[in-house]
Amino acid sequence: MIVRSEEQKSRTGPLRPASEQLSPAPAFPLAESDVEETLAFLRERPIHTFGMAGLIRDNGLVSTQNRGEFYGYRNRRGRLEGVALIGHSTLLEARNERAVQALAKQSQDCDHIFMVLGEQVQIEQFWRTYSQTRNEPTISCRELLLEKRSALRSTEMLERLTPAVYEDLDTVIPIHAGLAADESGLDPLVLDPEGFRRRCARRIERERTWLWKHNGELVFKADIVSDTPDVIYIEGIWVSPRYRGKGYGLRCLLQFSAQLLQRTRTICLLVNERNMAARKFYERAGFSFVSAYDSIFINRSALSNAAPPPVA
Questions:
Q1: Interatomic CA distance for residues 69 and 20, integer angstroms
Q2: How far apart are CA 204 and CA 195, in angstroms?
Q3: Are the CB atoms for 290 and 12 separated by under 8 Å?
Q4: Is-contact 117 90, C-beta < 8 A?
Q5: How many CA atoms lie within 13 A of 18 on its CB side?
Q6: How much is the pTM?
Q7: Residue 51 belongs to what H/E stretch?
Q8: Would you say 257 and 250 are in contact if contact means Cβ atoms under 8 Å apart?
Q9: What is the pLDDT of residues 263-291, one digit of tens each?
Q10: Is the dihedral of CA 33, 39, 40, 42 positive or negative?
């Protein structure tokens, strides 16, 4: 069983109620001149802000690569109390309910939100405000944020994992699309095939997709989504069906984790709460529970056609 430490509990407490009695000020768009302040704000809780911090480090605050716009919220004293990326994947970090409400109201004006992701308590507050003016079909998933801070060595070491190259693109695309469809019930190769291919290619160009092959056959894949000195967030972990149940996946993940922990303090990932097999796999690899997360998928066309529930 995955158990939370007292330190982890202290990092995931409820939102503080806002002390101000006046109506909250509106959220405002962040500019490149706000980068240092924004990153400093996000570094206060790096395990929960890996997504936004990684995008800012990769692309800056203002970039089409972010697939959305960054907004901030300040209190009456001018202190930054909330930051959100509002767009295709909407992420937020807030210090109190007033900041969450302001960022949720700003999100009501965005017509291309596909997913909202964040800590359970923040997403519940966000959705209460956001849904007041938006009545949209959704799929909701409860996920668990897991972290790993120290390397566990496999008893039988493999050759090092290596970054994918462009020639691997056609092999990687259907694997990554299948994983995304399993989680959201929506196939990115149907919704946006060209854009999905470009994004997969960009990950390969940035050496964010890592592979392990045996006799030329792909056995293991993992993707680095966010890469900062404090936290590296990984997803898209896949083991070839031919090699499952033989220990290859665990050995690859142990070795990959050891490689990454040479240059970051923490590795983290999200796993569906109902996927007990995956949870046990990550526990064996040394990952421990940090916090419960909610992801809400919004699709105005596909979901209206009776989309299936998320796969556990």
A1: 27
A2: 14
A3: yes
A4: yes
A5: 22
A6: 0.86
A7: helix 50-59
A8: no
A9: 999 999 999 999 999 999 999 999 999 99
A10: positive
